[in-house]
Design a protein that fits this description.
This protein is an alpha/beta fold. Strands 1-2-3-4-5-6-7-8 form an eight-stranded parallel barrel, surrounded by five helices. Strand 3, helix 3 and strand 4 form a beta-alpha-beta unit. The longest helix has 18 residues. It is globular, with a radius of gyration of 17 Å. Bound molecules: 2-phosphoglycolic acid. The site of 2-phosphoglycolic acid (PGA) has 13 residues, from strand 8.
Protein backbone atom coordinates (compact mmCIF):
# COMPACT_ATOMS: atom_id res chain seq x y z
CA UNK A 1 0.00 0.00 0.00
CA UNK A 2 0.91 3.66 0.04
CA UNK A 3 4.06 4.17 2.10
CA UNK A 4 5.67 7.43 1.06
CA UNK A 5 9.21 6.64 2.14
CA UNK A 6 9.58 3.71 -0.26
CA UNK A 7 10.04 4.35 -3.99
CA UNK A 8 7.07 3.19 -6.01
CA UNK A 9 7.45 1.47 -9.36
CA UNK A 10 4.19 1.28 -11.28
CA UNK A 11 3.54 -0.48 -14.59
CA UNK A 12 0.72 0.90 -16.75
CA UNK A 13 0.11 -1.75 -19.41
CA UNK A 14 -2.66 0.18 -21.17
CA UNK A 15 -4.33 -2.02 -23.82
CA UNK A 16 -1.62 -4.68 -23.76
CA UNK A 17 -1.45 -8.20 -22.36
CA UNK A 18 -4.51 -10.40 -22.11
CA UNK A 19 -4.69 -13.18 -19.48
CA UNK A 20 -2.24 -15.55 -21.19
CA UNK A 21 0.50 -12.96 -21.69
CA UNK A 22 -0.12 -11.56 -18.22
CA UNK A 23 0.47 -14.94 -16.57
CA UNK A 24 3.65 -15.45 -18.60
CA UNK A 25 4.93 -11.99 -17.71
CA UNK A 26 4.32 -12.46 -13.98
CA UNK A 27 6.17 -15.79 -13.95
CA UNK A 28 9.16 -14.32 -15.79
CA UNK A 29 9.20 -11.07 -13.81
CA UNK A 30 8.93 -12.88 -10.46
CA UNK A 31 12.01 -14.92 -11.28
CA UNK A 32 13.94 -11.76 -12.18
CA UNK A 33 12.72 -9.49 -9.38
CA UNK A 34 13.04 -10.68 -5.78
CA UNK A 35 10.66 -8.94 -3.38
CA UNK A 36 12.07 -5.67 -2.02
CA UNK A 37 11.30 -4.48 1.47
CA UNK A 38 12.26 -0.96 0.49
CA UNK A 39 10.05 -0.47 -2.59
CA UNK A 40 6.46 -0.84 -3.76
CA UNK A 41 5.66 -2.44 -7.14
CA UNK A 42 2.19 -2.02 -8.64
CA UNK A 43 0.83 -3.36 -11.95
CA UNK A 44 -2.06 -1.86 -13.87
CA UNK A 45 -2.97 -4.60 -16.37
CA UNK A 46 -6.23 -4.60 -18.36
CA UNK A 47 -9.05 -5.55 -15.96
CA UNK A 48 -9.73 -8.72 -17.98
CA UNK A 49 -6.30 -9.96 -16.90
CA UNK A 50 -6.79 -9.45 -13.14
CA UNK A 51 -7.56 -13.10 -12.41
CA UNK A 52 -4.59 -14.32 -14.43
CA UNK A 53 -2.39 -11.78 -12.63
CA UNK A 54 -3.58 -12.82 -9.18
CA UNK A 55 -3.21 -16.52 -9.88
CA UNK A 56 0.28 -16.12 -11.32
CA UNK A 57 1.29 -13.82 -8.44
CA UNK A 58 -0.34 -15.94 -5.72
CA UNK A 59 2.98 -16.44 -3.92
CA UNK A 60 4.09 -12.82 -4.50
CA UNK A 61 2.00 -10.55 -2.30
CA UNK A 62 4.57 -7.82 -2.90
CA UNK A 63 3.30 -7.41 -6.49
CA UNK A 64 0.26 -5.19 -6.10
CA UNK A 65 -2.62 -4.76 -8.53
CA UNK A 66 -4.41 -1.66 -9.80
CA UNK A 67 -7.16 -0.69 -12.22
CA UNK A 68 -6.44 1.64 -15.15
CA UNK A 69 -9.84 3.32 -15.21
CA UNK A 70 -13.26 3.21 -13.53
CA UNK A 71 -16.63 4.79 -14.32
CA UNK A 72 -17.80 7.98 -12.62
CA UNK A 73 -20.91 6.17 -11.31
CA UNK A 74 -21.06 3.37 -8.77
CA UNK A 75 -23.23 1.16 -11.00
CA UNK A 76 -25.89 1.39 -13.68
CA UNK A 77 -26.60 1.19 -17.40
CA UNK A 78 -23.12 2.02 -18.70
CA UNK A 79 -22.32 -0.59 -21.32
CA UNK A 80 -18.70 -1.62 -21.35
CA UNK A 81 -17.72 0.22 -18.18
CA UNK A 82 -16.46 -1.13 -14.86
CA UNK A 83 -16.93 0.32 -11.41
CA UNK A 84 -14.36 0.99 -8.72
CA UNK A 85 -16.14 -1.42 -6.37
CA UNK A 86 -15.94 -4.22 -8.96
CA UNK A 87 -12.26 -3.58 -9.45
CA UNK A 88 -11.73 -3.79 -5.69
CA UNK A 89 -13.72 -7.00 -5.48
CA UNK A 90 -11.58 -8.44 -8.29
CA UNK A 91 -8.41 -7.77 -6.31
CA UNK A 92 -7.33 -4.24 -7.24
CA UNK A 93 -5.84 -2.10 -4.48
CA UNK A 94 -4.93 0.91 -6.64
CA UNK A 95 -6.61 2.96 -9.36
CA UNK A 96 -5.45 5.52 -11.91
CA UNK A 97 -7.43 8.69 -12.59
CA UNK A 98 -6.70 11.47 -15.05
CA UNK A 99 -4.25 9.66 -17.31
CA UNK A 100 -3.64 11.85 -20.36
CA UNK A 101 -4.80 9.09 -22.72
CA UNK A 102 -8.16 9.04 -20.93
CA UNK A 103 -8.31 12.83 -21.07
CA UNK A 104 -7.46 12.94 -24.80
CA UNK A 105 -9.13 9.83 -26.23
CA UNK A 106 -12.16 9.53 -23.96
CA UNK A 107 -12.79 13.16 -23.07
CA UNK A 108 -12.18 12.83 -19.33
CA UNK A 109 -12.09 16.44 -18.16
CA UNK A 110 -11.03 17.65 -14.71
CA UNK A 111 -14.56 17.32 -13.32
CA UNK A 112 -14.78 13.72 -14.57
CA UNK A 113 -11.43 12.96 -13.01
CA UNK A 114 -12.69 14.36 -9.69
CA UNK A 115 -15.70 12.02 -9.79
CA UNK A 116 -13.51 9.04 -10.60
CA UNK A 117 -11.25 9.90 -7.67
CA UNK A 118 -14.31 9.95 -5.41
CA UNK A 119 -15.39 6.49 -6.65
CA UNK A 120 -11.91 5.07 -6.12
CA UNK A 121 -11.76 6.43 -2.58
CA UNK A 122 -15.25 5.13 -1.72
CA UNK A 123 -14.24 1.67 -2.91
CA UNK A 124 -11.17 1.74 -0.68
CA UNK A 125 -8.74 1.88 -3.59
CA UNK A 126 -5.55 3.93 -3.48
CA UNK A 127 -5.95 6.57 -6.21
CA UNK A 128 -3.09 7.80 -8.36
CA UNK A 129 -4.01 11.18 -9.82
CA UNK A 130 -2.19 11.86 -13.10
CA UNK A 131 -1.49 15.43 -14.18
CA UNK A 132 0.71 16.94 -16.85
CA UNK A 133 1.01 19.54 -19.57
CA UNK A 134 0.98 19.19 -23.36
CA UNK A 135 3.90 20.36 -25.48
CA UNK A 136 1.93 23.44 -26.56
CA UNK A 137 1.20 24.33 -22.93
CA UNK A 138 4.86 23.91 -21.96
CA UNK A 139 5.97 26.06 -24.89
CA UNK A 140 3.39 28.70 -23.98
CA UNK A 141 4.91 28.85 -20.48
CA UNK A 142 1.71 27.81 -18.67
CA UNK A 143 3.02 24.65 -16.95
CA UNK A 144 2.26 25.93 -13.44
CA UNK A 145 -1.25 27.10 -14.38
CA UNK A 146 -2.12 23.77 -16.01
CA UNK A 147 -0.93 21.72 -13.05
CA UNK A 148 -2.68 24.05 -10.60
CA UNK A 149 -5.98 23.75 -12.49
CA UNK A 150 -5.81 19.95 -12.78
CA UNK A 151 -4.97 19.59 -9.10
CA UNK A 152 -7.49 22.08 -7.77
CA UNK A 153 -10.47 20.68 -9.66
CA UNK A 154 -9.56 17.11 -8.76
CA UNK A 155 -9.17 17.93 -5.07
CA UNK A 156 -12.09 20.39 -4.85
CA UNK A 157 -14.64 18.05 -3.29
CA UNK A 158 -12.30 15.90 -1.24
CA UNK A 159 -12.06 16.11 2.53
CA UNK A 160 -8.73 16.35 4.32
CA UNK A 161 -8.51 12.64 5.02
CA UNK A 162 -9.01 11.88 1.31
CA UNK A 163 -6.43 14.49 0.29
CA UNK A 164 -3.90 12.86 2.56
CA UNK A 165 -4.46 9.55 0.79
CA UNK A 166 -3.77 10.67 -2.77
CA UNK A 167 -0.72 9.62 -4.73
CA UNK A 168 0.20 11.85 -7.69
CA UNK A 169 1.84 11.17 -11.04
CA UNK A 170 3.39 14.03 -12.99
CA UNK A 171 3.31 12.92 -16.60
CA UNK A 172 4.23 15.51 -19.23
CA UNK A 173 2.00 14.57 -22.17
CA UNK A 174 4.81 15.23 -24.67
CA UNK A 175 6.96 12.59 -22.96
CA UNK A 176 4.39 9.78 -22.91
CA UNK A 177 5.16 7.07 -25.44
CA UNK A 178 7.38 9.43 -27.43
CA UNK A 179 10.83 8.40 -26.23
CA UNK A 180 11.28 11.99 -25.01
CA UNK A 181 11.90 12.22 -21.29
CA UNK A 182 11.81 15.24 -19.04
CA UNK A 183 15.26 16.24 -17.84
CA UNK A 184 15.64 15.43 -14.14
CA UNK A 185 15.68 19.18 -13.45
CA UNK A 186 12.40 19.66 -15.33
CA UNK A 187 10.83 16.78 -13.44
CA UNK A 188 12.06 18.26 -10.16
CA UNK A 189 10.60 21.66 -11.07
CA UNK A 190 7.20 20.19 -11.97
CA UNK A 191 7.15 18.01 -8.85
CA UNK A 192 7.86 21.11 -6.74
CA UNK A 193 4.88 22.86 -8.38
CA UNK A 194 2.66 19.84 -7.66
CA UNK A 195 3.83 19.80 -4.04
CA UNK A 196 3.20 23.53 -3.68
CA UNK A 197 -0.35 23.10 -5.00
CA UNK A 198 -1.00 20.18 -2.64
CA UNK A 199 0.06 22.44 0.23
CA UNK A 200 -2.50 25.03 -0.92
CA UNK A 201 -5.35 22.52 -0.95
CA UNK A 202 -4.33 20.38 2.00
CA UNK A 203 -1.52 21.45 4.31
CA UNK A 204 2.25 21.56 4.45
CA UNK A 205 2.67 18.20 6.15
CA UNK A 206 0.42 16.47 3.61
CA UNK A 207 2.33 18.09 0.76
CA UNK A 208 5.69 17.12 2.21
CA UNK A 209 4.74 13.48 2.65
CA UNK A 210 2.79 13.18 -0.62
CA UNK A 211 4.16 10.65 -3.01
CA UNK A 212 4.69 12.08 -6.50
CA UNK A 213 5.64 9.75 -9.34
CA UNK A 214 7.20 10.77 -12.63
CA UNK A 215 5.91 9.22 -15.87
CA UNK A 216 6.89 9.62 -19.52
CA UNK A 217 9.31 7.35 -21.37
CA UNK A 218 10.94 5.97 -18.23
CA UNK A 219 13.41 3.25 -19.21
CA UNK A 220 16.08 1.08 -17.61
CA UNK A 221 18.76 3.53 -18.78
CA UNK A 222 17.18 6.70 -17.35
CA UNK A 223 15.52 5.38 -14.19
CA UNK A 224 18.43 6.08 -11.83
CA UNK A 225 18.77 9.76 -12.76
CA UNK A 226 15.02 10.33 -12.68
CA UNK A 227 14.60 8.61 -9.33
CA UNK A 228 17.49 10.68 -7.95
CA UNK A 229 15.81 13.97 -8.96
CA UNK A 230 14.56 15.98 -5.97
CA UNK A 231 10.92 15.26 -5.16
CA UNK A 232 10.61 12.20 -7.41
CA UNK A 233 9.19 9.38 -5.26
CA UNK A 234 8.73 6.76 -7.94
CA UNK A 235 7.74 6.22 -11.55
CA UNK A 236 4.74 5.29 -13.68
CA UNK A 237 6.01 3.30 -16.63
CA UNK A 238 4.17 2.47 -19.85
CA UNK A 239 6.10 1.00 -22.79
CA UNK A 240 9.15 -0.15 -20.84
CA UNK A 241 6.98 -2.04 -18.34
CA UNK A 242 5.82 -4.50 -20.99
CA UNK A 243 9.14 -6.34 -21.02
CA UNK A 244 9.81 -8.40 -17.85
CA UNK A 245 13.56 -7.92 -18.01
CA UNK A 246 13.35 -4.19 -18.66
CA UNK A 247 10.82 -3.61 -15.91
CA UNK A 248 12.79 -5.77 -13.48
CA UNK A 249 15.77 -3.52 -14.24
CA UNK A 250 13.66 -0.45 -13.49
CA UNK A 251 12.37 -1.98 -10.25
CA UNK A 252 15.94 -2.64 -9.09
CA UNK A 253 16.72 1.09 -9.15
CA UNK A 254 17.44 3.23 -6.12
CA UNK A 255 18.66 0.46 -3.86
CA UNK A 256 20.49 1.75 -0.83
P1 LIG B 1 5.41 5.60 -21.40
O1 LIG B 1 3.98 5.79 -20.72
O2 LIG B 1 6.33 5.09 -20.33
O3 LIG B 1 5.21 4.60 -22.52
O4 LIG B 1 5.84 6.95 -21.90
C1 LIG B 1 3.84 6.34 -19.44
C2 LIG B 1 2.38 6.42 -19.07
O5 LIG B 1 1.54 6.63 -19.94
O6 LIG B 1 2.02 6.26 -17.88
Amino acid sequence: MNQPTRPLFAANWKMHKGPVETAGFVREFSALHPAREDATVVFFPPALSFTAFREAAADRPDLELGVQDVHTEQSGAHTGAISAAMAAEAGAEWGLAGHSERRREFGDDDATVARKLARLLEAGLQPVLCVGETREEREAGVLAEVLARQLSVAARDLDDAARRRLVYAYEPVWAIGTGLTAEPADAAEAHAIVRREIARHADGATAESARILYGGSVKPDNIEVLLAAPGVDGVLVGGASLDPEGFAGICAAGKA
